[in-house]
């Protein structure tokens, strides 16, 4: 069970987030603080696993509080919960696990809790276990003039758009100033080229139709074509990820 702290100077916001958190069976005790100073006092007495912090609080704001928590021996996983779309870069500079925009949606909060669980597992992993302790790769993207951070493992597929690439996630798509060919090289560990216009994330492949005249794959509800030239590459990558009984 995850113990949590909600720090927000508006009680209705605390009540709403606490209600949503209680819907998730992974959440245990929930503490509340109406200011950054009160949060510090509470965490000094009773550490928690995760802290959900509003950014704009009087006095000690959410970012000040996050910096203060860096000095704690047991530092909680940080999730910023705010109506401010423009502070994501600073949030992830402070090693935030996630950045939630108000009003918080249940399914989005569920993913944040999953990220907290992953962060707790990574923190508990032996230092020599590089794979288990590695942090998810974060990518700076722009949408509507606002820069935010997304996790690479949220990207389902990438679409070429001239000298740019469009990253498609469950929630939205983002244009980045990187050619598809560059992403193909940089992300070859988890993505495979299926067409001159598409890279797909292997973990997000839902269905495959590799026979017939028009092979295709389904990723995140989108059906994407597979070129004949790249079909052997896709088959080879899928072969390498197939589980087999031990001889």
From TrEMBL:
Domain named HTH LytTR-type is located at 139-240
What species is given as this protein's source?
Answer: Microbacterium yannicii
Note the SUPFAM superfamilies from the entry: CheY-like
Q: What is this protein called?
A: LytTR family DNA-binding domain-containing protein
Has the keyword Phosphoprotein been applied to this entry? Answer: yes
Q: Which Pfam families match?
A: LytTR, Response_reg
Which domain of life does this protein belong to? Bacteria
The PTM 4-aspartylphosphate maps to: 54
PANTHER family given for it? STAGE 0 SPORULATION PROTEIN A HOMOLOG, TRANSCRIPTIONAL REGULATOR-RELATED
Residue intervals of the Response regulatory domain: 3-117
PROSITE patterns according to UniProt: HTH_LYTTR, RESPONSE_REGULATORY
- Which GO terms of the molecular function aspect are on file? DNA binding
